[in-house]
């Protein structure tokens, strides 16, 4: 039996995240201090205080990465080891830090740029995303094809019964009633700033690729399952092409979790803000253990159950 460390993606952020851990554990404080130094500003204060910048993608991404790695270092200090790592979208960078492939200091600077590139690729308000509840992927794609398959896309395969679509706002709005007519239980517009994980992010992908050329990439200490392919990276040579494509491609999270379970993983530990991934894992399989850690209460609960 095996353990996977899994890491939160964008949308999980919340004001105050990480403050209890920062105040309680020197190893967590060290991570936030390193992030502040690497970025040249206090991402710690953006996390801890009621700061609207936390919901701006350029700041959201380094904030969530920092919070996630703080939990990771704490659990490592407590003697926990992972057999595998994975993360939802942005969380894949935390997984690569956990595997020793990226240094935290370089990763936190990189994801800030990634967030800015994603925001600038499609101006705010031009794109949109919606979650489609309880409708098969084939029926979703058929509805999108009837609207315009080059302007609205499947963006996330999150878990059984939840798939996200994204694209130009006009086409997303046209698709929503068609999806309801096709049998979706609900179609919920998401509060995000752009059509992430679609070909509309190609400009961001190109700019990210240029930045990745300057990053030190190390060998994998543990396998990381990419949500681009839902399979493990074969080696360090996969990192740049995978991360380049990942920002403009569908997130295969349901398939990622399924493949981890098939590989023998029976324990999932979600590190970072929120418990979204924990709920997704439980929808994939009720036979595995899934816990989240984001503050002292969830830390105590997780340690008591692991």
Structure keywords:
alpha/beta, four-stranded parallel sheet, 306 residues, five-stranded mixed sheet, 13 helices
Q: Which H/E pattern describes the elements?
A: EHHHHEHHEHEEHEHHEHEHEH
What spatial order of strands do you see in the largest sheet?
6-3-5-4-7
Low-confidence stretches: none
- C-alpha Rg, in Å? 18 Å
Count of helix runs = 13
Strand content: 15-25%
* Structural class category: alpha/beta
- Mean pLDDT value: 96
Number of strands: 9
Q: Sheet with the most strands?
A: 5 strands, mixed
The helicity comes to 40-55%
Plain-language structure description:
The chain has 13 helices and 9 strands. By secondary structure, it is of the alpha/beta class. The strands form 2 sheets. It has a 5-stranded mixed β-sheet. A 4-stranded parallel β-sheet has the order 2-1-8-9, sandwiched between helices. A hairpin with a 2-residue loop joins β4 and β5. α2 runs antiparallel to α4 and α4 runs antiparallel to α6. The longest helix has 21 residues. It is globular, with a radius of gyration of 18 Å. The model has no long low-confidence stretch (mean pLDDT 96).
């Amino acid at each position: 039996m095996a353990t996977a460390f899994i890491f939160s993606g964008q949308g999980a952020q919340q004001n105050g995240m990480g403050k209890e851990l920062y105040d309680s554990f020197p190893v967590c404080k060290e991570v936030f201090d390193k992030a502040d130094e690497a970025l040249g500003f206090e991402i710690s204060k953006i996390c801890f205080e009621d700061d609207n910048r936390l919901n701006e993608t350029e700041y959201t991404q380094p904030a969530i990465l920092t919070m996630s790695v703080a939990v990771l270092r704490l659990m490592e200090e407590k003697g926990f080891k992972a057999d595998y790592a994975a993360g939802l979208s942005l969380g894949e960078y935390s997984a690569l830090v956990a595997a020793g492939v990226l240094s935290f200091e370089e990763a936190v600077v990189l994801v800030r740029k990634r967030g800015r590139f994603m925001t600038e690729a499609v101006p705010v308000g031009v794109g949109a995303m919606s979650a489609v509840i309880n409708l098969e992927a084939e029926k979703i794609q058929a509805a999108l094809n009837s609207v315009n398959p080059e302007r609205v896309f499947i963006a996330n395969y999150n878990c059984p019964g939840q798939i996200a679509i994204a694209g130009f706002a006009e086409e997303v709005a046209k698709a929503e009633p068609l999806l309801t007519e096709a049998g979706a239980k609900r179609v919920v517009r998401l509060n995000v700033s752009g059509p992430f994980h679609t070909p509309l992010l190609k400009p961001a992908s190109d700019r990210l690729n240029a930045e990745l050329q300057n990053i030190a990439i190390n060998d994998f200490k543990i396998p990381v399952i990419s949500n681009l392919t839902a399979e493990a990276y074969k080696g360090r040579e996969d990192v740049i092409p995978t991360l380049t494509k990942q920002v403009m491609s569908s997130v295969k999270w349901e398939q990622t979790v399924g493949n981890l379970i098939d590989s023998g993983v029976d324990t999932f530990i979600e590190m970072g803000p929120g418990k979204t991934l924990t709920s997704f894992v439980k929808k994939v399989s009720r036979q595995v253990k899934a816990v989240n850690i984001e503050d002292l209460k969830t830390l105590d609960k997780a340690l008591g159950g692991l």
